[in-house]
Amino acid sequence: MGATGRSRINSHSRFDFLAALWLLSTMITVVQSCPQRCHCAERNGAVVQCTSRNLENIPSNLPEDTAVLLLSSNQITHIPKEAFADLRRLRELDLSHNLIESLEAGAFRGLSEGLRTLDLSNNHLQSLPKETFDKLQARVRLSNNPWNCECSLQEVLREVRLDPETINEVSCYTSARDEYVGQPVVQVLDSGINFCTFHQKTTDVAMFVAMFSWFSMVTAYIIYYIRYNQEEARRHMEYLKSLPSSSRINKDDDTASSVF
Question: How far is Cα 181 from Cα 177, in angstroms, rounded to an integer?
Fold first, then answer.
């Protein structure tokens, strides 16, 4: 074998060695930055597996190159503002089968358009802030939550791309109108129902009831005031009548003088 051939072999060997060294250093970095109770692997970005680990909060030390974050089947109840803001490369986020009851406005702020799937199914969500899914292009799963079908939910659904496979499992658990309970939200909205109109009517009725109550209280006070003053006037008249008249007093005085 000539010198040129040996040089090429050595060059390839050095390249393979450097590639292996880079891969090893990357894997070590991922392992070192992996949250406790989670398992991390490198696959075109970090895959962070935190399923069924009894987590109550989002892990705080997630690798910045996390591409897949699996947090399903934990005890998470709340998603704070900008909980994933540092994960610019995140493509898949699974929060299903938790106990999530609330999300702060801006909970997913900072996630780029690279996010493809967001799973919030099988939680305890009843409503969402209007800005929850702003600028997200991901397909979102919201099935099997106890949704309250009212105006704010309607406005949220107007801005989100629901996963077509589970869209009919997003149902009204409670509603402003009892006849919609148990029905898929999208079907109700497609039928022409506008929950925001119900909300406006409910608000108008509440304002009317409040104004009527205030008017009733004012009227009752005026009636009480008049009756109280009438009663006081009557008592004063009776008191005046009970006093001896001036003519009688003068006559008694004259009689007393003649006697003396």
Answer: 8
What single-letter amino acid sits at 179? E
Who contacts 144 (Cβ-Cβ below 8 Å, separation ≥6)?
A: 121, 122, 123, 169
**Alpha carbon of 67 to those of 24, 48, 145: distances in Å?**
19, 8, 26
CA gap 96, 76 in Å, rounded: 10
Whether the CB-CB separation of 122 and 146 falls below 8 Å is answered with no
- The pLDDT profile of the chain, 260 residues, written as one tens digit per residue, is 555 555 554 545 544 544 433 344 444 444 458 998 999 999 889 999 999 999 999 998 899 999 999 999 999 999 999 999 999 999 999 999 999 999 999 999 989 788 999 999 999 999 999 889 988 999 999 999 999 999 999 999 988 999 999 999 999 999 988 899 999 999 999 999 999 985 444 444 445 445 656 656 766 767 766 776 777 777 767 766 676 655 444 545 554 454 44
State residue 69 phi and psi, 5-degree precision: -125, 115
Cα separation, 192 vs 16, whole angstroms: 64
Amino acid at 95: L
Q: Is the pTM of this model over 0.70?
A: no
Q: Are strands 117-119 and 92-94 parallel, antiparallel or unpaired?
A: parallel
